Amino acid sequence: MSRQREYDESDVRVRPGRRGSRPRTKERPAHADAVIGLVIGVDRGRWTCLVQDRPVIAMRARELGRKSVVVGDRVGLVGDTTGDPGSLARIVRIEPRTSLLRRTAEDDSDKIERVIVANADQLAIVTALADPEPRPRMVDRCLVAAYDAGMDPLLVLTKSDLRDPAQFLQDYVSLDVPYVVTTSVSGAEEGDGTDGLADLRARLQDRMTVLVGHSGVGKSTLVNALVPHAGRAIGIVNAVTGRGRHTSTSAVALPLADGGWVIDTPGVRSFGLAHVDLDRIIDHFPDLAAGTDECPRGCTHDEPECGLDAWVANGNAGPAGPSRLESLRRLLRSRAGTSDEHSAVHDQPDEPGEPPLVSDFAGD
Ligand SMILES: Nc1nc2c(ncn2[C@@H]2O[C@H](COP(=O)(O)OP(=O)(O)OP(=O)(O)O)[C@@H](O)[C@H]2O)c(=O)[nH]1
Ligand SMILES: [Zn+2]
Questions:
Q1: What b-and-e string marks burial along 51-61, b requiring 16 or more CB atoms within 10 Å of the CB?
Q2: Looking at residue 21, which CATH number applies to its domain?
Q3: Which residues sit with Cβ closer than 5 angstroms to ligand 2, an ion?
Q4: Could you read off the pLDDT of 60-105 as tens digits, one per residue?
Q5: Looking at ligand 1, which atom is closest to the CA of residue 160?
Q6: Does residue 224 have its Cβ closer than 6 Å to ligand 1?
Q7: Complex ipTM value
Q8: N or C: less crowded end of the chain, CB within 10 Å?
């Protein structure tokens, strides 16, 4: 890791210089001529950006420094933005982000945060109802990641032909997480509603949705049903480096016919949640948040001194209070440590050459 960082282009080619010795305007030219593109794929130091309707291949400009450019980013492009074969544009800036999905690489001793996707507004947690068995703890971790990123979670429960969703859903009632139930083997015609695809399409329309789920849950089956030419779209992204689409482990954004995007994340199987801010999770429980006023400083909200127990016992959070508090604590606990199931699901290595980010996106 440290060797890779040593040879990162921003380290090698940009002379450190004295801090603040150059005027900011000179360091970061306005690039008034830059066109805006949407990053739809990243592969080996090349970014595929959609400019109007054409894919444009780009590299990052030095002036970006160590900032990660990820799928979902809107970027300013200069240079050859024709998208013609062999052309290469330069990414000179990243537009302000509305959300940031990140993870901590927990296998790294330095707990480095990495940005996975920018600007997505929904996280679809794809879980099979059976075969493979659902992993509730993983789902909880995804919920925490969504809340932390400022994204709306959506449970997508696949393989409803194998098991009724009622039991699984019990754990999510008090969290009020929206869900759709799908099956690819309804035996009926697609579009009659029994396969859940129409429900799912309605949930995805005009949104930018990240799909996460572990192997075998039926994510590819869904993507193929949602995006008829998904294979070709992924092919366009990966044609850049001649890398086959089946080997891609980076995120890729796919356009939906009805408007909106789904972002498939083949390389992301889990989230490290070490960076998550407690308050951002509590914020998603407005009925409980006010009850933390009586908490001791630095309360984890999962300790005997926590003020929430009394708050809820006094009825301040209504009849649902106790189960809401229980659910909140379940989510908080899912952040800590590494569960067996988590360590059994390893993340893929990151894009080579992508500099890890620690905190310089804080202002984004
Ligand atoms: N019974 C049933 N099987 C399904 C359903 N959807 C997908 N499958 C099967 O589940 C298996 C996994 O499906 P995929 O779509 O490849 O799953 P994935 O999540 O993309 O898994 P990876 O490719 O390993 O990432 C395949 O054998 C599918 O045919 C479903 O609704 N019901
Ligand atoms: Zn507390």
A1: beeebbbbebb
A2: 2.40.50.140
A3: 295, 299, 301, 306
A4: 999 898 888 999 999 999 999 999 999 999 999 999 999 988 876 6
A5: 31
A6: no
A7: 0.97
A8: N
